[in-house]
């Protein structure tokens, strides 16, 4: 238990010491900027100013605990020693400007702010406190404020609010993820030393900065195993760690990958990066046609200079103060700012780029452009919002890019098929050449042999010709047979199947039965009509002498007439009944035929549905093959991208080494 307590105390001491180290470094850098700037020196207070964390306001030091006050007293003593040491001030003056991006800042800087900056602080404090209402009601005003720059002390919380990362469940899993093992650990370790190599927080090997950067990258590679780790993402995580603790930085990075298209950019296929390159190239063609033609003539592809802009959001292009301002806008508006800033850079440098070849343009992008805005990023940001950006057109370009890629995949499939056919034809040619060579050898042997005469050789040649002719005939016959088989299959498919034939036979039998019933009814009607005619003739014969007969006979004749009339009506009624039955039979027959047609149609629909299912399954298989081909192509592109990035990183390492050597030589010369 004593050992465990000792380890805990040692861990707390090491974390406290690293925090103190970062705080002292940041304080010294701000003091150096005040010494270097005459305007800043007018407002300099006494060196024994108190320090505050970003969570505390400058005017509330009473909120600190006794332990914090004791720690701050020690920091004040360190500040006095560093201020009196001219060497340390000179070394700080020569360091990078971005060393001020740390988690702790001095309260003297906040107390010396101008009235405008103080108003900005008050405004951002209100925005943070009332974020939900402000985001819904004043979204445009918030965007305008972000474009002007987020104050350093508010940057951590505002970034989390902009991407909605302040309350993510995955934050609770972070400590568990660090205990697991990632397959990308070696790659992450290898690239950590190349991430911000000149920044105080990351430049020392196995420092706190490198350790927390490794932790965040490892945790994300375990959360998203499809992406894992990709070169370039460490620069974004490093910038987040300069502003906030590692758990919050991890949550913000997860949000950026999910909601800001970064995950698609860092996937092994890098398909989203290809889309961004296509869209950016189309924007250059529209807005800067002369420069586009110049790039095409020099074979200067967009990915040669712009891929790092999208992968690192200009963090590897500009110094940190400028890149951080651009990253503020990226957190608010997404990748649109990368398109705007990229096109604005090309517009500003168009005249110089038109005079250079490919090597000169590469040098211009690497050496000149990064230092064009050392005085401040306002000019660049203002120019970027003069660029015309049409979101609908970008969507249209995305559809065009998808169509182009689909056609390319189809062409690749066709090329693969043609290559397969070409390989089979080559094999066939080789086989025929071998057969010809063997026959030639036999002919030569027969010619050289005295046992065979020239007649035998001619006979062999004839046999060879006949064999070739028979082979050609067999091929033709085979093709004819195949055509006949296809034709027979088509005919069989057009003919009704056995079930349909049976149904048609049943319908025919039913129709014949109804026809027989109708004929029987017709015969009965004819017999009744014949009987009625006979009765009518008899009646006429009787009625001819009606008026000559006595009255009794006349009464009998009247009764017979009435009986005859009733019989006639009965015959008419029966005829109408028979006619109605006939119509009913016809309707039933038609109904039966229609039901049979409907049944056949349903059967055809079922067959068509089965065919559709079969075709959809076949289509899924083809899609799977297509996705596999896309994945392989993406792997090849990823490997090439990694090689290009590795070359660039090696070149950056060489440049850094040369700079260090030059600085060492300068120090030796001074000594």
Automatic annotation (TrEMBL):
Keywords: Coiled coil, Phosphoprotein. Residues 149-334 form the Rab-GAP TBC domain. PROSITE patterns: TBC_RABGAP. Residues 408-442, 522-639 form a coiled coil. SUPFAM superfamilies: Ypt/Rab-GAP domain of gyp1p. Pfam families: RabGAP-TBC. Residues 89-109 have a biased composition (Low complexity). Residues 38-66, 84-109 are annotated as: Disordered. GO terms for molecular function: GTPase activator activity; small GTPase binding. InterPro entries: Rab-GAP-TBC_dom, Rab-GAP_TBC_sf, Rab_GAP_TBC_domain. It comes from the Eukaryota. PANTHER family: EVI5-LIKE PROTEIN ISOFORM X1, RAB GTPASE-ACTIVATING PROTEIN 1-LIKE. This is EVI5 protein.
